[in-house]
Automatic annotation (TrEMBL):
Belongs to the DoxX family. The chain crosses the membrane at residues 47-67, 74-95, 107-127. GO terms for cellular component: plasma membrane. This is DoxX family protein. InterPro entries: DoxX, DoxX-like_oxidoreductase. Pfam families: DoxX. Keywords: Cell membrane, Membrane, Transmembrane, Transmembrane helix. It comes from Variovorax gossypii. It is a multi-pass membrane protein. It is found in: Cell membrane.
Amino acid sequence: MTIPKTDRLVPPALSVLRIVSAYLLILHGSAKLFGFPHVAFFDNLQLVSLLGAAGVLEFFGGILLLIGLFTRPVAFVLSGLAAFAYFIGHASKGFVLAPSLNQGEAAVLFSFVLLFIAAAGAGPWSIDAWRRRAPVAGASAAAA
């Protein structure tokens, strides 16, 4: 049984989840691409490498997610990126089914949160939602 009062909180909560996830992805990407915030592991990172490509996807995909533009396909691609990061960068460091043992919890969580966003959409606070609400130019003239 659902409580009607909480039903109205779900769409804004989806937008908040998308915005916070996007912010974190932008930070991951900017650490790789621009060195801010500084993460010593990413010093001298080559742009043409797996980590460099991940940084580009995280930064620019994060910006698209933040504003809620092309949310579903971007979130789907980024979900795959996070899964790829887990299996390539973390699973080989320990038991694959125990992310807490191989420092892969964030990658797993990102993968599933982004997969949920890809399925659920951007939420009401997004350019995607605004584009769905905006009337098409000339539609009223064609209907007349």
